[in-house]
Amino acid sequence: MVDGLSDLLERYAEFADPVIIEELRELVDDLRGLRIQEINSTRKGGGVAEILSSTVPFLRGLGFDVRWDVISAEPEFFRVTKTLHNFLQGRDGFSPSMIKLYWDTLEKNKDVLDKESDVIIIHDPQPLGLIKFLSDEVRRNKKVIWRCHVHLETIPLAKMKDIEFFLRSMVESYDAAIFSTFQYLPLWNVVSFVIPHSSIRSPKRTES
Predict the structure, then answer these.
(1) What is the 3-state secondary structure (H, E, C) of the chain?
(2) What's residue 205's pLDDT?
(3) How many CB atoms within 10 Å of residue 84?
(4) Contact at 8 Å (CB) between 36 and 66?
(5) Are 113 and 130 within 8 A, CB to CB?
(6) What are phi and psi of 12, to 5 degrees?
């Protein structure tokens, strides 16, 4: 057992089902030494940063080797991805001309990918395309997962055109995708899991 693991889980035992605590112990034993990389678009602000700021320390506390990296980009890139976000939820505004800026920015960030990690988890559309900069040889010994935190609105295919292909080709390149609810699942060819949002905080000890 990893040093400190028992103490960490004991602090959650008061609030979590004992079965879950035992499953976590077994998971750590089975995956000891696993190296995980989390990638998103910002260190502060927004729900994803809040989730990672708590879950990354929790995973480290369980004994996993976890690093958290953030892409860098000019404000225009984030305006483009915000427009894409809104488009995915049914609004107009995103156009194929924005795709070039998207790829140019991610190419500049390709070195953020940790090729030594066993699992790479990429969050939301902003860094989604980073998977295209991993060679088949590098990917052979790792799993790359996309974690989608946004609602993907059902948009008519005629309206999507190049934009649907742009997104779908990236998502279907992943080994798996994680969505927050069943309503978020797109009808695309990717192994999908539903995991509700969570933000883990270490329970405080109470003085007796």
Answers:
(1) CCCCHHHHHHHHHCCCCHHHHHHHHHHHHHCCCCEEEEEECCCCCCHHHHHHHHHHHHHHHCCCEEEEEECCCCHHHHHHHHHHHHHHCCCCCCCHHHHHHHHHHHHHCHHHCCCCCCEEEEECCCCHHHHHHCCHHHHCCCEEEEEECCCCCCCCHHHHCHHHHHHHHHHCCCCEEEECCHHHCCCCCCCEEECCCCCCCCCCCCCC
(2) 44
(3) 22
(4) yes
(5) yes
(6) -95, -15
Q: Is the pLDDT of residue 67 over 80?
A: yes
Look up residue 122 and give its amino acid.
I
- Tell me which residue has tokens 């889980």: 9
Take residue 20 and report the two structure tokens written for it: 């879950």
The pLDDT of residue 135 is: 94
Is the pLDDT at 199 greater than 90? The verdict is no
- Cβ-count burial of 40 within 10 angstroms (0-12 exposed, 13-18 middle, 19+ buried)? buried
- Give the residue from 144, 87, 89 showing the smallest Cα distance to 115: 144
Q: What span, in angstroms and rounded, lies between the C-alpha atoms of 38 and 147?
A: 10
* Confidence at residue 6, expressed as pLDDT on a 0 to 100 scale: 67
Percent of the chain beyond pLDDT 70? Answer: 86
Tell me the backbone φ, ψ of residue 193, rounded to 5 degrees: -130, 150
**Residue 40: predicted pLDDT:** 96
Question: Beta-carbon neighbour count of residue 116 at 10 Å?
Answer: 12
Q: Read off the pLDDT of residues 154-194 as tens digits, 9 standing for 90 and up.
A: 555 445 566 777 888 899 999 999 998 887 777 788 999 99
